[in-house]
Amino acid sequence: MSSGKYGKLYGVGVGPGATDLITLRAVHILNSVSVLAIPKSSEHLEPFAWRVCSPIVRENSSQEKLFLHFPMTKNPKILIPAWDKAFSEIGKRLEKKRNVAFITQGDPSVYSSWSYLLEEANNRWPGIEVEVVPAVSSITAIPAILQTPLADGRERFCVVPGTYGLKDLPELIRHFDTIVLTKVGRVIPKLVSILKELNLLQNANYVSYGTTDRQKIVKNIETIQNENCDYFSMVIISIRKRKGALKGQNIETE
């Protein structure tokens, strides 16, 4: 229990999918708070973040599992009331001085529903104590799977959502050596077309459900452009024009 006016609020990342990539800090918090706030996008499917972390959450009859609906839509008329309802439910627990951990897949600071709660927290519960628990992100996990460095020496990389960032690719390849495209499941045909125009199809690798038992790696993404690709998917475009430090190339000097 918290000693302040409210319970303590945690944003806890549970990583990209493999349970054994959850941090020790996250394991400790998930098993010590009195409420686990678990976002879900569907009324019928088990939330992905909960599926990842539930094996390490010990049986505890006094711990509440609070499932909160966060609909997958961009319509603010649907989103805002849903978020408000979810935040109100969390607030009821915090006002009883119960510590609440909001779990999120990946890292809480990267394209996460947690960021909206974090922005609202101090307005709704002035002076509340908040802790953000970082996690292994798919942005680093997927390059590890592919054994492709994101950046080295003078190289630069960027992260862009595939859902609305594809139009920027011609400009991005001028400035970055590695481009990480997230949430590409619905845009693979368009991405293939753009990469062909840029002569970069051979530089792109696709990974879905990375680090899980459903992991899929595709080296030639043209072969999947007619498939129903997974939402939890990513494409790494590796150009790496500025590598070569170990060969005495591209070394920045004063």
3D architecture notes:
The protein folds into 2 domains: 9-133, 3-Layer(aba) Sandwich (Cobalt-precorrin-4 Transmethylase, domain 1), CATH 3.40.1010; 138-238, Tetrapyrrole methylase, C-terminal domain (Methyltransferase, Cobalt-precorrin-4 Transmethylase, Domain 2). It has helices at residues 24-30, 48-53, 76-94, 114-124, 138-146, 162-165, 169-175, 188-197, and strands at residues 9-13, 35-40, 64-69, 100-104, 130-133, 157-161, 178-182, 204-208, 216-218, 233-238. It is elongated. The protein is an alpha/beta fold and 254 residues long. It contains 8 helices and 10 strands. The strands form 2 sheets. It has a 5-stranded parallel beta sheet, sandwiched between helices. Strands 6-7-10-8-9 form a 5-stranded mixed beta sheet. It starts with 8 loop residues before the first strand and ends in a 16-residue tail after the last strand. Helix content is 29%, strand content 20%. The model has no long low-confidence stretch (mean pLDDT 92).
Q: Order of strands in the sheet with the most strands? A: 3-2-4-1-5
Number of contiguous helices: 8
Name the CATH superfamily assignment of the largest domain. Answer: Tetrapyrrole methylase, N-terminal domain
CATH structural fold name of the largest domain: Cobalt-precorrin-4 Transmethylase, domain 1
Extended strand count = 10
Describe the main β-sheet briefly: 5 strands, parallel
Give the end-to-end Cα distance, rounded to a whole number of Å: 54 Å
